[in-house]
Structure formats: structure tokens, C-alpha cells
Amino acid sequence: MLEAIPTRELITLDGIGIPIRGTYHRPGDSPTRPLAYSTGKERPGVLFLNSLSLPRAATGDSAVHWADSCAERGYPTFRFDLPGLGDSEGDLCTDLLDFINGGGYGNIAAAKVKELVEREGLSGVIIVGHCAGAVSALYAAAATKECKGLIMMDPYFHLPQMIRPKLRQKLSDWARSSKIGGLLSDFYDRCRDLALFVRSGRAPGNANFMLLNSWKQTAATGMPVLLLKAPGLKTTGTQPRAGQFDYLKYVIDLAGNKSQVTVNLIEGTDHSFANRSGRAAVRQQIGNWLDRYFPLDGMGEGTRGVLLPVNARDDKNKYRKPGRVSASMSCAVEGR
Description:
CATH class: Alpha Beta
Distance between the termini: 28 Å
Largest sheet: 8 strands, mixed
CATH superfamily: Alpha/Beta hydrolase fold, catalytic domain
Strand content: 15-25%
Number of helices: 9
Number of strands: 10
């Protein structure tokens, strides 16, 4: 039985009177990048946050897999449980989703980023979040200058309901299993599409305007941002389902021409990105993005500003616009 993993260490951040526990993935030698540093001051760290109520390992230990990958490339990498989650003490809110959507974890995570930078002597931190964790990551990025980059996996910018009404859920299940239900569902989507057209691109009433403000505040500065998108139900590429507001296009426009936002579609997976294909594709996309925007000494200048090859096919760049915005739609094939 394996009692310890030499490349990992359990650590606690106890500043601001709020202790949180996590795992430190120490940088190590890698076949692709020899480690040649004696301190962490020359490099940023990578920090993974919880997704909603999941522990820091995430679904199927996927976050462990990605954190190991970042550490192998030479980046000090951390996974922390926020207060009340996983191994960290604290009272868990009964309205957890509302708490997260209102930025409840944002300021706490920002303070912990600053504490982590000072403790480990890092040049800054790249914050990674999935789903609701991406919401907390964005709020934290907007609240601390120590955040140098942001990775958001299947983020949402509206105010979703934690529990779907039973009647609506039954109708949704019927629409999936019935031909007539499917036709009615398509008709309903088209009606909603017409309503969106009438709104002329304005954000709907259930948009999380506080989060969108944090997005604009962060992305417009030119901070590198990677958005990873999983395929959605009844959608093609990164386009939203008929009748749903196109938040990706909206946030790209909101970011402005000076932003550095990359949007990648990961095919062959679901919202968790936890299957074999999704885990491999996310690992590769994060590695390529880190090499582009946060190259470590010893890699040479040849990779600076150029995405390394990905086992993928490139779709039409729907969101490309003048300036430094990069919104390539890279669709990863089956992992091996």
C-alpha cells in the first residue's frame, strides 16, 4: 500500500483567521522540461479551486491528474478546499450556489492567493476553476493583483437554479425520450430564439451582472484567460443551444480588443471533462496555454507566443476580432 507520494505534500494556509487545507504538487523533472530552478521566484504557481461542493480532487480525480501535469512541466501547483468543502473546516452554506454566484468565495480565494505567493515566493498565481469553481476563480482574479492568469472550464455567466422544478424536469425527460416531445422542444427553442433576436444582443435578466463586471474588469486588462468548453445538448461547436443567449460571444465582446482570451472546445467529453478523452485534452490544452503565456526559463524563445501542436482539428474562428484576442476553437479528438 502506497503511504506517501514523494512529489506531493499536504499543506495548510491559515492566514486571515480562515484555515484551508490542500495539496502541493511539487515541480519535478519532466521528459519535456528539465527543472533547473532553486527557488519559485522565477515562476508562477497554478491553483485549482473546488467546483461547487466537490472535494479538491474533482470528479474521477481529474484535478489531481491536471495538477500533476502542471507540476511535471515545472509549475508549483496547488489544490485547495475552500472553507466548508473537502478537508477544510467551516460551515457550508445551505444556499451554496447563491453564495458562490454572489462572490462569497472570491475574496477568500483572493486572500489565499496572496498568502500562497508570499509563502512560496512565487511570481504570481494562475487560478483554475471548473463550473462554479470558475465563478469563484473569476471573482478572485478580479480581487487580487497576484493573479496573473485565469483558466475557466465550462463557466456560466447566468444565475442558475440549484434545484430544477420537478415538472420542468419531467417535461425535459419526456422531450428527450419522445419524438413528439422532441419536436415541441425544438419549437420552444425557436420561439426563445426569436425573443433573443428582439432583445438585440442584450444580456437577459437572469445574467449574473456582478460576475460580468468582474469579467470585464479582469479580461480587459490583457490578463491571459483560457476558456475550455464542453459540448452542450443540441449544440454545434461553441454555439449555444437555439433559444439560449450566446454568453461566449457576449463576454468576448465585453473583454475588448486588448484582451488575451482563448476559447477552446473539447469534444468527446461531458461537463466534467473527467473521461479519458476529456482529461487528456484538458491536460494538453492547459500545457500549451502555459507554454504560450507563461514560458519557464530553459524552454527557449521558440515557443513564445505560439501554441504547440494539439491532436485536434480547428473549426472556423467564430469569435476572432482585431487586437490580441485569441479565440481559436480547438476540438480535441479521442485521447490515447
